[in-house]
Structures are given as structure tokens and as C-alpha cells.
Amino acid sequence: MNFPPNRTSALARLEAFVPLAAKYAAHRNFDLGAGKHNGVSRLSPYIRTRLITEEEATRAVLAKHNSRAAEKFLQEIAWRTYWKGWLEMRPEAWSHYLATLAEQEKPAGYAKAIAGETGIECFDHWVHELLGTGYLHNHARMWFASIWIFTLKLPWQLGADFFLCHLLDGDPAANTLSWRWVAGLHTPGKHYLARAENIEKFTLGRFDPAGQLDEKAHPIPLDQTFTRQPLHLPSNPKPKGRTGHLMFPEDLAPPPEDLGEIHATAAYLPAAHQASSLVVEFLEGAISSTLAERDGTLFGEPFHSSLNDWIRAEKLDAIVISRPTVGFTKDFLTDQKLPPITHTFIRTWDHLLWPHATAGFFKLKAALPKIHASIAPNRVDDLFPDF
Ligand SMILES: Cc1cc2nc3c(=O)[nH]c(=O)nc-3n(C[C@H](O)[C@H](O)[C@H](O)COP(=O)(O)OP(=O)(O)OC[C@H]3O[C@@H](n4cnc5c(N)ncnc54)[C@H](O)[C@@H]3O)c2cc1C
Question: Domain residues for 212?
């Protein structure tokens, strides 16, 4: 398995990557093929489940490099949080995606595209790589989405759905908004056009789709704008009495220490939206390895009776859950009505970064040096040489 679903493997991958973080900017654009993605970290399935957190990865890099040397990598980690914060403030972008996805007819060309039979060699290769491994390099994702939208003329929502079903790191915010960005819907009028020359260069000649791509297509016309809603970031609760930590697959990290003692741990995996068997296997493995470490309970179906049984068996006075972010788990929980003893907590990382995701990434990028200084004060000299 390319991504063994446990924290030990996640930490090993982080440790192996940290020395390379300073070379990331030079190497990150090259897609050398499955098994050779060594210029990037391949941490995304672990970060998506928070088998390791964004803060942990950032701290590990800052422990070895000054923030300038590893700037590009640190910024990419923040991109994920940017997309999540942006969507927290515009949840309609998610519901609009789901609604327009449900309306899509499967056009001619769709079946061949998802079978990797378009005749565009690089695209067909990436389809098979995705189906076989659950992972694609970032540059391949950009080229893939661009070819899907502008050369194959397929609806972006169907492509985003295909990714979400098959990516081990599939994330409603990063995925939906990246597809919108490629289409020219995130920054209106600015789209990403895959060029044969660029693919040839950054695959070191493995592919050369010269003459096969539409390199002159226009952006997709803007479908809807989304009003920004205020971001509520209350302080974390102080639960009293016996407290249980209930986890969902997007956040398997232990709760912050300021919540106090945790007496019991449990997890539930909501039926994922047509997730591939690789994705389900990864998520089930991530949950069971985490529960094994913390002597926790895996909920069966139905959710509500498992929850009530757990509360009774563990004699719980309070339950804490990591704030569900906009996406499938939040949709699931909105329908579930959790008991009133449930408290939601927000991780410091999200508290620090989300408020800067009001507009473009630039605002968050500008805030990063101070944020990094606050979590890794030993690096303050590198960040503010005049201190
Ligand atoms: C069309 C499209 C769809 C995408 N869908 C997803 C998705 O569902 N889930 C997802 O996590 N990322 C998504 N990305 C972003 C990016 O491609 C992946 O995060 C990255 O390729 C993961 O590989 P890595 O861990 O080796 O990344 P590295 O380059 O090593 O980066 C380290 C970490 O930073 C984060 N990161 C890096 N680049 C980005 C980015 N552009 N946007 C957001 N976070 C980033 C990831 O958590 C990643 O693990 C998508 C990008 C595109 C263009």
C-alpha cells in the first residue's frame, strides 16, 4: 500500500521529507510518475485525516530550516487551510457544487474520460494512476482538471466528483475550490490552461500532447457569487465531568490539552459519497489504527444508537468533537442532532489562519511569518531580522 493508514507511517514520511523541504521550491513542479514523487511530500492523505496536523508538519519543518529556506512548502500547507477557511465563510459554494453536480447529465466523452480512454496519453495515464494509487501530483491535478474542462469540454463538477471519489486526500474545500480555480470561477476571468510544452517540460519528456490540447479556451462563465458570512470562532469549551472525544475521519488528532482530561474515545465513519474502495480502506485503516492507539470504540450503524450506547457505557457527562468543516461530515451531522452534552472545539491552527482567508491567498500569505513565529518562536530571528 502506498499510504499505510497509520500515524507511525505518517510520521515516518514527515521525517523523511523534512530534510528535503528546502529543495521543495526547485523540485515541486516535476511530475516524474507514480513511485517517483520524491520532490513533494505525499503527506496529503495524512493531513486530510489529521493523522498529522498542519501545525505539526509546519513545526517539524521550522525545527530544521529557517522559514525563508522552506517558505514555499510552508505556504503550500497554508493553502489547504486557506481553502478551508474560505469555504467556512462561503458554505454556499459547497451546496451550489452539490446541487449543480446532481443536475449534470453525463455527456458523451465522460465514460471514456473516467476509463482513461481519451487518446490523450498523459490524461489517460493520470486516470490510471489515480484509480490505482488514490494520489496525483499537484501539477498533474492542474493539467488533468484543465484538460477535462477546456479540451474535453466536460462539466467541472463531474471532474471534481471523480477526484473526490478517488483521492485519498479528497477534501471538499481543497478539491471544489481548486476545480473552480482551474475553471476561472474562483478568480473570475483567470483560468488555468494546460500547455503541451509545459507538460513536456515538467514530466521530463514522458508526455508530449502537442496539438491535442485546446490552449486557447476561454474561462467558464461565472455561475454564481457567494456572499461571505461572518466567521464565528468561539473559545474552546471547558467540559465538566467524564468527557468523551468523538472523532470523524477528517480529524483524528487528539483534542487540545486545554479541554482537560479525556476519559473515552470513539469514532464514526459516515458512509462516504461513492468513495472508491481504496479511499474507504484508507479511512477505515486510519480510524482503526487511531482507535487502537487510544483504546477507543468504533461506532457501528445506526449512528444514534451507537452514540447512546457509548454515552451510557462510559457514563459520559460531556462529548467533545472537532468543529466539522463545510463538507460531507458537516452535512451528515446537521441531519443528526447531536445531544446537548456535545461541545465543539477549534484547533489553534484554524483559529490563527482562517480569519485571513476572507479574500485571496495573498492576505494569508502576508500573515504567515507572524503565525509561524507564534508557533515556533525560536525562528523569530529569521523572520524579523531587526528584532
Ligand atoms: C484540481 C485540483 C484538486 C485538488 N484536490 C485536492 C484535495 O481534494 N485535497 C487536497 O488535500 N488537495 C487537493 N489539491 C491540492 C494539491 O494538489 C494537493 O494537496 C497536493 O498535490 C498533495 O500532495 P502532497 O502531499 O505531495 O503535496 P505537497 O506539495 O508536499 O504539499 C504539502 C501539503 O500542503 C497541502 N497542499 C499543497 N498544495 C496545495 C494546494 N494547491 N491546495 C491545497 N493544499 C495544498 C497539502 O495538505 C499537502 O499535503 C487539489 C489541486 C487541484 C489542482
Answer: 94-231
**Domain annotation covers residue 171:** yes
pLDDT in tens, 102-111: 999 999 999 9
Q: Which residue's alpha carbon is nearest to atom 20 within ligand 1?
A: 138
- Could you tell me if residue 352 is inside a domain? no
In this structure, are 122 and 222 located in the same domain? yes
Structure letter (DSSP) for residue 228: P
**Does 227 share its domain with 142?**
yes
Taking the C-alpha atoms of residue 94 and residue 273, their distance in angstroms, rounded to an integer, is 14
In the predicted structure, residue 378 carries a pLDDT above the cut 90 = no
Domain match, 267 and 300 both: yes
Q: Which of 384, 101, 173 shows the shortest CA–CA distance to 376?
A: 384
Please indicate, yes or no, whether residues 46 and 174 belong to a single structural domain of this protein: no
Residue having the nearest C-alpha atom to atom 30 of ligand 1? 41
pLDDT of residue 379: 59
Residue 238 in domain:
no
Q: In what order do the strands lie in the sheet with 342-345?
A: 297-298, 264-267, 243-247, 318-322, 342-345
Q: Report the separation in Å between the CA atom of 25 and the middle of ligand 1, taken as the mean of its atom positions.
A: 15
Ligand 1 closest atom vs CA 145: 1
Instruction: Give alpha helix (H) positions in the chain.
Output: 7-17, 24-27, 44-48, 54-64, 71-89, 92-103, 110-114, 121-133, 138-146, 156-166, 172-183, 196-202, 277-294, 303-313, 328-336, 348-353, 361-375, 380-383
Q: What is the CATH number of the domain that holds 125?
A: 1.10.579.10
User: Over the stretch 84-102, which tens digit does the pLDDT of each residue have?
Assistant: 999 999 999 999 999 999 9
Is residue 101 located within the same domain as residue 204? yes
Pocket test for ligand 1, best of 37, 47, 76, 77 (most atoms within 8 A of CB): 76
> Is the C-beta atom of 65 inside 6 A of ligand 1?
no
Task: Quote the cell numbers at residue 268.
Answer: 464514526
Q: What are the residues whose beta carbons fall under 8 Å from the beta carbon of 198, sequence distance 6 or more?
A: 143
pTM of the predicted model, to two decimals? 0.97
Check residue 381 and give its pLDDT. 46
